[in-house]
Every structure is written in structure tokens, then in C-alpha cells.
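User: Please predict structures.

Assistant: First:
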Amino acid sequence: MARRLQKATGRAYPPVSSLVRQILGWEKGEHFPRDWTAAYATAFEMTEEELFGLSSYLGLAGGGDGGAGSAWREVDPTKRRDALRLGIAATVAPAAMAAVLGEAASEAMEFTRMAGASAVGAATFDHLQAAVAAIDRSYTTEPPAEVFAVARAYRARVQELIRSPHTLKQGRELYVWAAWLSELLAWLAHDLGHPLTAEAYAIDSYEHADQAGHDELCAWAADALASIATYTDRPERAVAAAHRGIARAPASHPIAVRLRAKAARAHACLGQRAECEDLLRGAEELHDRLPARPPTRFGTDTGPLAEYAVTAYPASAFIWLADYERARRHAERAVAVHTSTPSTDPSPGHVAIARIDLGIALCHLGAPDAAAAAGATALASPRVFEALRSRAGDLDAALTARYAETGHARDFHERYLELRG
């Protein structure tokens, strides 16, 4: 536009750079091109009336005490830019318009090229799937500190890829893998006894899953948040997290069962029996309607997670409600179910917590020897994690408070101290 104006006036001054600044000022409404209207009209092969007098198009009042310059300044800057860039371009000479369209075709081609530009290699997602599956499998078999280091390195690499050029489709998939890795890191940090880090990763997992529109993954992240809140004595937050996950979980997925049972457990911590029992019934009903072959998680059967939820979580819930007889029955059922099919349980450490709950129930029912024996068996688990240490502390407190002088209570107390150490 500046070059056209310069050519239309036949003058070498002002230079193009100066004219560009003037044009930008006109677009912003800082001043009106009073001395340049004829040059504009010549440059675009239009009359001054056509170019500056179309009040209805440009949104100008026209005339008035303030004159054309005042009216021009009253117009919204966006409208001025649209008028100068689009309205004028629509009425330029055919030869000029052809040049504009030629440049536009080149721009469109560049837009298309950039849409496919990516730093994500062809096999990146295959590699991530294999790596996350391996991390998920090693979660229950390898030392959590070692698995955490590996998962954290992959999470950092995915973040680098998110920041690098990628397609929109690749971006969504990168967010999904980021969420899966953060979900695993949340559980690993929880097992290592660092709730702050665990919650941070769980929140990150939910956020990335939500951005990617992945409902199931949102549910898994909420599941982690609910557990972390429960074991840090924040039952209200556990309830909120579980219900948030319930809203996203597919009804035919085991995670929906698990979240209802976790919400029930959190309500029990708050002493809310009615809400707890209602959610437990809902979990049982969903469990009964699960497909014969439930979805897998990186090739691992998720069915046992739902089975554990409807057996072990009620045991914990009824302990917090001080209904020890019902807690004992559920805990015994949980131990029986999970010891009969240990190879199918993706989290074999779960049965240890069920044994602890059984011990707490037995302690309150007047059987300290059986309670201590159940607790000792739990502490012999090959995988010790923070949730187990926490529940073992509850059993130790119960035995110490009621049967401090018995050998069973003293023996378990010594085992518990070794575990904490």
C-alpha cells in the first residue's frame, strides 16, 4: 500500500518506511489521511467518494462538526483495519487483485505445510506405548524408586515433544501419554510416601487427560487423587475426587466400580453411613453388570481391580464406621478372593491391606492373637508401600490400645517399627 501511494504521488518522499507508519496510524485511528485521499484513490483506481465516503460500509458518521477525521476516529479500530485491508482489496484493479490472489495461494500452501510439520517421529507413539506398558507392569514387581526414575524421564521427554512442532492430532496423543505417565508417577510417589508429589502428578494427569478429552483416563487420575486424599486424612477431598471421576468413568468399565467404592470409603471416614452404603450398593450393581471380558489396561486385565473394590474397600469403610463384624466378613472375603487367583491381580499388594483390615476388625472383636497373625502375614508382603505402612499403623494402634501387655501385641509392634524404619 505504501509503495502504491508513493507511485501514485510521483514523489520519492516520504520513504516507504515512513508511509508504512502513517498507514498504521490511519488504521488505528490516530489521524485521518486528509492530504492523501487523492493518492489513495489513484493508487486503488477508485474515486475519493468510493474510498472514503461509504459511510454505511466503513461505519462512519460522515460530516458533522468534527469532519471526516473526527468520524474516522470514532470507528472501532478493527473496522478501520477491515475497511482498509479487506474492503479496499475487494475493489482494487484486476491486475493488482491477481497479484494478491497469487500471494494468497502461496500462503495457503505454507499453511498446509506447517499443519503437517512435526518433530514427532513416525515410531514415537509405538515406543511410548511399549514404554508405558512396561512401566505399568513393573509397578508391582520392581522397587518403586527405580520405576519412578524411569517414568519421570519419559514424562519429561513427552513434555519436550509437546513443546516441539507437532500436528494437532499428535498433540492430543502426546497429552494422553503425558497423562498416563503422570498417573503412574502419582501412584509411585504415593507408594514412596510423598503425598505432595503424588497429588501434583495426579492433578497433572487429570488436566492433560481432560484437555485430550479422554474420559477414562480422567477417571483413573481421579482414582489416584481419591486414594491420596484418603491416606492424608482429607476425606472431603477424597469424596470430591471420587465423584469427579465417577462423572467421567464409562459405566461398563471397572474403574467406575472402583471409584464408587472409594467414594463410599471416604464417606465412611466422615461417619456418613447412609451415603457410604448407597455407594457400596451402586458399586456392587455395576460390578454385576460388567462385561465378561472387561477392558484391559496396557494388556493387563482390570477385572480384579473391580473385584478388589467390592470386597476390600467395604472392609475399610465398615472399620471407619465401627461396624467390625461386617468389616471382618468383607475382609475375609477379600483375602479369600485374592489369594485364590493371585496371578490375575494387577496389584498383589492389595491383599496385604485386606489382611490388615481383617486384623483391625478381629482386634476390636476380641481376638488379638488372630489380629496380630493377620497383620504379621500382611507385613511379610514382598511389596511394602505407604498405604500398607499407614494401615499397619492403625492396626498397631488398636492392638497397643487394647492389648498392650500381650505378647501378640508386642510382637506386632516390633514388626511394625521395623517396617517404619
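Second:
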Amino acid sequence: MALSLDFLALPLLVAAALVFVSVLAGVVSTRVGFSFLLVFLLAGILAGQDGPGGLVFNDFRLSFWVGNIALAVILLDGGLRTDFDTFRTGLKPSLLLATLGVVLSAGITGAAARWLLDLSWPMALLVGAIVGSTDAAAVFALLKSSGVRLNERVAATLEIESGMNDPMAVYLTLALIGVVLAASTAGSGAGLSALEVLRSLALQFGWGGALGLGAGFAMAELLKRLGRGEDGGGGIRALLLVSGGLTVFAATTWLGGSGFLAVYAMGVIAGNRARRQVRSTLSAMDGYAWLSQAGMFLLLGLLATPSQLLPTLLPGLGVSLVLMLVARPLAVALCLVPLRFPPREIVFISWVGLRGAVPIVLAMFPLMAGVPGAQTFFNVAFVVVLTSLLLQGSTIAWSARRLGLALPEPDDLQANRLVFGDFVIDGATPMDTLCAFYGLPVPPDAPTDVATWMREELRRPAVEGDSAMLGAAELSVRALEGGRITRVGIRLG
């Protein structure tokens, strides 16, 4: 009797065909403004038990495992592409948004969930914690595919925030699961003390930061010793980076720390300290990241059962709208107004608070912990992700242009004149010379040169596209070098 390989061929045929069709549909959909990731998610739904595919898939444990691995690879890839220079403008706002911003978003959204879903306060706040953080996969992918060039402050804030806010979301989710379980077993002596909560927070950030930084330095030295990759070993080095990143992710998680923070920190350090060696791996890393995103969103789509979503569809939409239009904007404004972010940048960062795979992965925590009514959390998280990718993900380019945040490409002379004005001067030009030549009022106590005046006027680290008014003229930052303004554009009257 011949050995049948149907057990291999049929599942492989279905999986490969599903990925192929999803990628093809995604390429077409991006041309009309739809999110690439949304296509993968919808493809999984259509292939699931309520769709034409009819596949029955409810393995939450496997999905949780795959989701965490995929997020680790995506965060590693994002970290490798993050330059140290971006931390000059993005670190402080990102840290605030990744900590205080997540807590505020979770609290406001939780209050809405208590009213819309009729839940107890611990359960409602758990809903807020699950959907409270932005998603690295969605942010990295959609900013890259949006086709717009953002100024360094906005792009760095969004990317670093999405890479660093997962630890706070995981911590809040686990802590609130403990509170919910303690409440459901009242009288059994279960509970969480304040000391345990603080210890868990310290472990998440402490181990995550320490192991991530240590592994990043070690990986950078290893890559340097292996050479620059002239032998065409970019693919091998990418595999080395991925396997090393997953090792750090698993070890940090096992020790009670944040594996997400660790793998992102490792990528940032290795990518900057071994820049030449890492550059040859980025093409292969891009493939790993896209494969991770495709597999993760397809699997999460298969998990969703639209017929089970219907009872919580309207409350879930309400939670999503409160998150997008109230919780996220308030949290972003409270964090960024003290840092003197312009209003249009605050509005854009609020709108691009994309939710992706992370809320769905976090929604599996209560399911695996046996929290009563945990299916509701998964259904609400899925509705939030779907609406975020549909509404926010498909309007990134439009909103950036509408708010005047899309910078022109350096070689597009006409677009540069429209944005920066018709005249360009050196940043070292004396202020009195500039004002005399263009007939502008000389500011009282004006510094010696234009670059210094603009820096003092902005009162924040300058980035390309920043502007300030001098009489009837608008002066814009056109170029920087090492954080110093080197060229200034002038638009008159």
C-alpha cells in the first residue's frame, strides 16, 4: 500500500494558496487606499467557518504562540531600522505615550466599556488595557506603505511609541486578570498586593531593558567579528539576528520581563552599533517581517467567527469610537502639549494610534487564564482592530496631507517651493543681515544667526518642516546636520 502524503499536501495547498491570494489582493488594495493588513485579516475571516472557506479553527494556544513570535520578529525588524538620531526628538514623547498614554487610554476606554458592555469595573478596565496600546506591526507597515514622508519628530514618536508601549499593555492586562480572578474567587484568600503589582512592573521593564541592551551590544560585536557581509551573507546574518532575537524574547519572558521591550531594544542597539553589517540583512529582514505579519493576521482572521461577533458588534463599535475619538486624543494631548508639539501634529499622532494584532493577542490572555466571559474581550478587541485598520489605516496619507504634515521629496523642486517658500538661506546668516535684506522687523534681543533664533523660537528640538513667523515672513527648517539647522526656507507675505 503506497504512502499517502495528503496530510501534507492538502493543508500546505490551502495555506499557500490563502497567502498567495491575500498578498495579491493586498497589492491591489493598497492602490485604492486600503490597509494591506486589513486584507490579510479579511482573508482569514472569509476562509473561516462562517465564510466561503468553511475552515474550523479555534486553537487559541497555537494562535497565541504564533502571534507572540510574529510580534517579536516585527519589533526586531523595526528596532534594526531605528536610528539613534531619531531618539533626539522621539524618545521623550514616546516614553510618555508608552506609559502614561497607555494608562490614560485604557482608563477612559474602560469607563466606556463599563457603560456600553455593562461590565464590572475590573472587567471593563481589562477591556481598556487590552486595546490600550498601539500596534507595532500596523504602525511600521502602514507608515512605510503610506507613500508620505513625515517629519522626523512625528515619525519617530509614532514608531518608537509602538515599539515600547507593549510592556505597559501586557503589564496592565496581566495585573487586571489577577484582580478579576481574585474577585471571582472572593473568600479564597486570592488577591494582588501593591507590592506584587510594583514588583511585576519592575520585572517587566527591568529585565526587558537590561537583557535587551546587553543582547544588542553582544550581537553587534558578533556581527562585526563576522565581517561586513561582502560574501553575500546577508540572508545568513538575518537568520542569525532572528534566531538571536527570539532567544532573547523567550529568555526575557521566562524571567518575568517584557520580551517585546527586550527584542526591540536589542534591534536598536545592534542596528546602530553594527550599521554596515546590519544593512546587508535588511532586505531579508523585511521578508521575515512581512511573512510574520501575513501569517499572524491570517491566523487571527481564522479565529474570528462573525456570527459570534454580532451580539457585541454595536457595543464594540462604541468602544472603538470612544478609543479613537476620545481616549487616544485626550491621552496624546495630555502627554504632548507640555512638550510643545504643534496642534496639527497632536491631531495626526492621535489619529494614527493604530490597533492591530497586539489587542487580539492580549485578548487571548483572559481566554487562556479562564476568566469568566473572556470571549467578550476577544470579540470586542477584534471589532476595535477591524475598525482601526479600516478607518485609520486607510486614511494615513490623506490625513497627513490634509494636516500639512507630508514633506516633499528632496528632488521635487516645485513641491519644495510650495512647502518651504521661494528663497533659501544658510542657517548661519546673521539676523540683522536677513531682516535688512527682506525688510523684516528685527526681534528684540535677537541672537546672532537665523538658526539660533529659530531654535529659541521653537523651544523644542527642531526637525525638517518646523516653521516660525518673523513679521510677515514664514521661516521654515529645510535641512539639519547633527541636530543643527543648516538651511532655512523663507516665504514672504
